[in-house]
């Protein structure tokens, strides 16, 4: 969220809630650092655990264990590695309900949404099971007389993954299945706000037969992150989180000689052309704007309505908001709400402050989620779905990422004006166009400066065999997550030029540069 908001050490660590430690050497490792952070149940506001914040000794221990794991795992045959991946996939598929419950309890998102996040992560596990095909090199026979040239794709070694709070299972799964399949050992530093999913996944790897040390969970804050960024043992960093931290990660990791991919924040626009089906648009805007309480990097946060449709569209969105059920994501009396709470009270107040800013800047608050509370959950971190209209593009509520259930409508006169607004933004994660005009959609996919584009699809998260990543300040580095980019990121290529000497053709002494 910000450089100052995270990395806090809880002043109120309590002895009567579970203490969540690390996963090192294939086992839970309680922390002795004496530093912890609270883990809330956002639906009730109660502290349900204290998570360890690693100290220097624990960081070193985790990295050293991963190095030992790498030395064992990288020598496993492809067939043996593949059998562990298949076992992991089967266990995950069979037991994903347990993981969904953990995600809901710590993140707050509704159970079906937690399940959706797991399924999108499982897709990458499934892709990774086919890794032999994706990491096999190329071979050129007789590149020069009697000389063959071929390439090997070898693992990097120990790789670091640092993940955000909003997808505690899916985002780590964007990286670790591919990294492990390729023969690396992973040290995962999950968000301190919802650290239990990572520990659950670690136990699953153990059950699947992964050797100790190949998957490590290092709980912590900036100290743990900096430990990974500066360690000479760690070969690469895969980061997902807010833009200021992504930029810091990119610069620091690169300075320490590492391969780095750092995915940052977003401000995703949906461009609605006048010929679009407004009921489809309103459904999509509500789903993509308020799903997971807007805490998705691919959430739609701005609707650019090309006039004359704005009045009708705003009315349709407001109508749908009125029917949304907001409550404990775990459900009450067997009924699941549409939307759960935000991650913390601090974040809820920050979201509210953006609505204040928009209002002060002249936006109209069509539906106001400030001060929202849920009966029986008065201490939960709830914020109601909010709809803003006539949002000035100079307002910070427009230019900054809010990361909450706040949808802003900006009225534009033409496709060109809408496109110009999207392209002038500093983020470039996702976008969508809604239209029935194929020519306009085709123009948009070509002209828009954004990494992931939806055509009548509001959250265009690519499937596992394509790759995920934005442009501009939404991605630092040149490698996206998963897909072919993932296999390239987690392997390094070695080119071998080979000749089996034949005294008749070896050519004798020749100091010139090798030619064909
Ligand atoms: P965050 O940047 O606060 O934290 C991400 C990770 O960085 C966490 O593990 C955290 O412990 C660590 N961290 C935080 N402050 C740090 C510091 N000063 N130094 C070193 N490490 C630090 O992000 P968040 O609030 O957990 O997640 C929400 C953000 O992530 C949003 O901006 C969202 O758009 C973004 N996000 C982006 C994508 C994407 O694919 N582009 C996906 C999911 C989330």
TrEMBL record:
It comes from Agromyces indicus. Pfam families: Aldedh. This is methylmalonate-semialdehyde dehydrogenase (CoA acylating). NCBIfam families: MMSDH. Gene3D superfamilies: Aldehyde Dehydrogenase, Chain A, domain 1, Aldehyde Dehydrogenase, Chain A, domain 2. InterPro entries: Ald_DH/histidinol_DH, Ald_DH_C, Ald_DH_CS_CYS, Ald_DH_N, Aldehyde_DH_dom, MeMal-semiAld_DH. It is an enzyme of class 1 (oxidoreductase). GO terms for molecular function: oxidoreductase activity. It comes from the Bacteria. Its EC number is 1.2.1.27. The keyword Oxidoreductase applies. Keywords: NAD, Oxidoreductase. PROSITE patterns: ALDEHYDE_DEHYDR_CYS. Residues 31-496 form the Aldehyde dehydrogenase domain.
């Amino acid at each position: 969220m910000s450089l100052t908001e995270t990395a806090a050490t809880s002043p109120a660590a309590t002895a009567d809630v579970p203490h969540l430690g690390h996963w090192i050497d294939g086992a839970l490792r309680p922390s002795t650092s004496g530093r912890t952070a609270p883990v809330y149940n956002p639906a009730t506001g109660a502290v349900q655990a204290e998570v360890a914040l690693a100290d220097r000794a624990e960081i070193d221990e985790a990295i050293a264990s991963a190095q030992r794991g790498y030395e064992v795992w990288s020598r496993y045959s492809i067939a043996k590695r593949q059998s562990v991946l298949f076992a992991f996939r089967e266990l995950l598929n069979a037991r994903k309900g347990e993981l969904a419950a953990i995600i809901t309890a710590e993140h707050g998102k509704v159970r079906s949404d937690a399940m959706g996040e797991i399924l999108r992560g499982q897709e990458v596990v499934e892709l990774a099971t086919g890794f032999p095909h994706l990491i096999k090199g190329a071979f050129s026979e007789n590149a020069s007389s009697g000389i063959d040239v071929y390439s090997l794709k070898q693992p990097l070694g120990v790789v670091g993954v640092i993940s955000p709070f909003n997808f505690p299972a899916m985002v780590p799964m964007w990286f670790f299945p591919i990294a492990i399949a390729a023969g690396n050992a992973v040290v995962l530093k999950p968000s301190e706000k919802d650290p239990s999913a990572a520990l659950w996944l670690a136990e699953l790897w153990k059950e699947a037969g992964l050797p100790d040390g190949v998957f490590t969970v290092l709980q912590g804050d900036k100290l743990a992150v900096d430990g990974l960024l500066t360690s000479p043992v760690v070969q690469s960093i895969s980061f997902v989180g807010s833009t200021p931290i992504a930029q810091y990660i990119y610069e620091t990791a690169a300075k320490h000689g590492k391969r780095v991919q750092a995915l940052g924040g977003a401000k995703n626009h949906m461009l609605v052309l006048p010929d679009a089906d407004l009921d489809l648009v309103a459904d999509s805007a509500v789903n993509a704007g308020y799903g997971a309480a807007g805490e998705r990097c691919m959430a739609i946060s701005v609707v650019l309505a090309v006039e004359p449709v704005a009045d009708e569209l705003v009315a349709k969105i407001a109508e749908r908001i009125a029917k949304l059920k907001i409550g404990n994501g775990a459900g009450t009396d067997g009924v699941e709400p549409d939307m759960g709470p935000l991650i913390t009270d601090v974040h809820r107040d920050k979201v509210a402050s953006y609505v204040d800013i928009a209002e002060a800047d002249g936006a109209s608050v069509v539906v106001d989620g400030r001060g929202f509370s849920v009966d029986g959950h008065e201490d939960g971190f709830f914020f109601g779905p909010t709809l803003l209209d006539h949002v000035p593009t100079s307002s910070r509520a427009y230019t900054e990422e809010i990361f909450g259930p706040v949808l802003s409508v900006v009225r534009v006169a033409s496709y060109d004006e809408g496109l110009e607004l999207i392209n002038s933004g500093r983020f470039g994660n996702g976008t969508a166009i809604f239209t029935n005009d194929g020519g306009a959609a085709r123009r948009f996919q070509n002209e828009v400066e954004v990494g992931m584009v939806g055509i009548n699809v509001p959250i265009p998260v690519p499937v596992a065999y394509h790759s995920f990543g934005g442009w501009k300040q939404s991605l630092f580095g040149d490698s996206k997550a998963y897909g072919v980019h993932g296999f390239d990121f987690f392997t390094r290529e070695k080119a071998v030029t080979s000749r089996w000497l034949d005294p008749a053709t070896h050519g004798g002494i020749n100091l010139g540069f090798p030619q064909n």
